[in-house]
Design brief:
Largest sheet: 5 strands, mixed
Number of strands: 5
CATH superfamily of the domain at 91-245: OmpA-like domain
Helix content: 55-70%
CATH architecture of the domain at 91-245: 2-Layer Sandwich
Number of helices: 6
Strand content: 5-15%
CATH class of the domain at 91-245: Alpha Beta
CATH topology of the domain at 91-245: 60s Ribosomal Protein L30, Chain: A
Strand order of the largest sheet: 1-2-5-3-4
Radius of gyration: 47 Å
Length: 247
């Protein structure tokens, strides 16, 4: 009887141990399932991170390539501008020499040829072109204009502006004031250059500045004489330069 009770007790103990093992096993399996799930989640997150890194790398490389392309394009544009500006400087320098050679027979106090502000100025004094208070071009003045026109007809890409200037002494006679005289003188020279010497009329602009842009002191006779002048201002065609600047 005692042995039977002991065996029964052992059986119960063993059953309890088996149940405990089963429970522990289930808990372990649950823990493993949770670990596998977390491992799978981590793998997915890692895949997402790697994908993002690859996307970022591709984007960065693309931006770098685009940036390098932009820098190269900007450098080319800058080089084109510098080359064009230098080319225009060369044109003006060559034109200055050609005109100076063509007008070599005229005295320095009758006319000057110089480059200022990217333009070529041929400044002719009143005594070479006009009588006092008159807008009719004298024969000697026409000789100078003919020599100049010969050069301009061989350089069709050069724009021509004629500016008349006076001193501050009030004028008397057929013109209302010095401003009107300066305009009339500029217009007379335009007509000589175009009608007599064949300069294309579309290239030429006439304007009068009156007494408002002196180059010397109007309180002296020498200063007033220098201010009574007509300037023929020559400039290269800037269309190509403006096109590059607008890009």
């Amino acid at each position: 009887m005692i042995a039977s009770c002991v065996s029964k007790k052992k059986l119960i103990t063993e059953q309890n141990r088996v149940r405990t093992l089963q429970r522990d096993s289930l808990e372990l399996e649950a823990g493993l399932d949770s670990c596998y799930k977390k491992y799978a989640d981590l793998n997915k997150q890692l895949d997402d991170v790697m994908k993002n890194l690859n996307d970022l790398s591709s984007t960065s490389q693309s931006r770098i390539a685009n940036s390098e392309m932009t820098i190269a394009e900007q450098q080319k544009r800058l080089n084109d501008l510098q080359n064009l500006i230098q080319s225009q400087k060369d044109v003006l320098n060559k034109l200055r020499k050609t005109i100076a050679d063509a007008l070599v027979n005229f005295k320095p106090d009758e006319l000057t040829v110089e480059i200022k502000d990217g333009k070529l100025y041929v400044s002719l004094q009143e005594k070479l072109l006009f009588k006092s208070g008159s807008a009719a071009v004298d024969p000697k003045g026409k000789e100078a204009l003919q020599s100049l026109a010969t050069v301009l007809n061989s350089t069709p890409d050069i724009n021509v502006m004629i500016e008349g200037h006076t001193d501050t002494v009030p004028i008397r006679g057929r013109f209302e004031d010095n401003w009107a005289l300066s305009v009339a003188r500029a217009t007379s020279i335009v007509r000589v250059l175009t009608n007599e010497y064949g300069i294309d009329k579309k290239r030429v602009i006439a304007s009068g500045r009156g007494e408002f842009f002196p180059v010397a002191d109007n309180t002296t006779a020498d200063g007033r004489a220098k201010n009574r002048r007509t300037e023929i201002i020559l400039s290269p065609n800037l269309n190509e330069l403006f096109r590059l600047l607008e890009q």
